[in-house]
Amino acid sequence: NFMLTQPHSVSESPGKTVTISCTGRSGSIASNYVQWYQQRPGSAPTAVIYEDNQRPSGVPDRFSGSIDSSSNSASLTISGLKTEDEADYYCQSYDRNILWVFGGGTKLTVL
Amino acid sequence: QVQLVESGGHLVKPGGSLRLSCAASGFTFSDYYMTWIRQAPGKGLEWVSYISSSGSTIYYADSVKGRFTISRDNAKNSLHLQMNSLRAEDTAVYYCAREGKYMDVWGKGTTVTVSS
User: Fold this and answer.
1) Is B91:B113 a contact under the CB 8 Å cutoff?
2) Which residue of A has its CA nearest to B48?
3) Bridge partners for A36 per DSSP
4) Residue A97 has what pLDDT?
5) How confident is the model at residue A84 (pLDDT cuts 50, 70, 90)?
6) Hey, of B103, B105, B111, which one would you mutate to test binding to chain A, going by the most A CBs within 10 A of its CB?
7) What is the rounded CA–CA span in Å between residue A60 and residue B23?
8) Once rounded to an integer, what is the mean pLDDT over residues B41-53?
9) CB contact (8 A) between residue A45 and residue B103
10) B47 closest CB neighbour out of A39, A54, A102
11) What is the dihedral of CA B105, A50, A95, B68, to 10 degrees?
12) For residue range B6-38, what is the model confidence (pLDDT) as tens digits?
């Protein structure tokens, strides 16, 4: 079954840039679109990237997404980090049966 | 405004049943696919089930197949998840979400606890 693997946690300072990876296992990451969801403590998730690199309305351009077929991975990059970006981030795509797959989540600490 | 509100979460004994509901408002419910996603305490997101706009296409995660049934009532703008043969590992916050190009609207979730 297709799986998505994320680092458990990342940390960076305010104003810096951080990249969170999402690696596909047992399938090609490029076969289906990747979405990224942000979840702050006690809240429901909200999308920050959809269709690999598109930003929903209202999401600042500090958030960007990309796909690297050579490493079979997707990446979420957040530049100009703010303390409000501290949250859990989940990548999501689909397996070959077009069923939804989530990565395990990455806790971003902005310190 | 566009809103999804889940209800029906409760404490239930292993082997018991529960029916979750998701009330939609602020958009044409019958135009959208819908999904259920859950999150166990301190864990990540897990997709549970999907239903097409007409209800004709349904998918389930392997972990709930045969035990959970998704349905919708477009006349009442509501989505449901019938959960039978509940297990301790079904304990989670259950979210309903609207599916467009991505899950663009989420409810706040309802908590299901399976424990004796």
Assistant:
1) yes
2) A100
3) A49, A91
4) 76
5) very high
6) B103
7) 30
8) 97
9) yes
10) A102
11) 0
12) 999 999 999 999 999 999 999 999 999 999 999
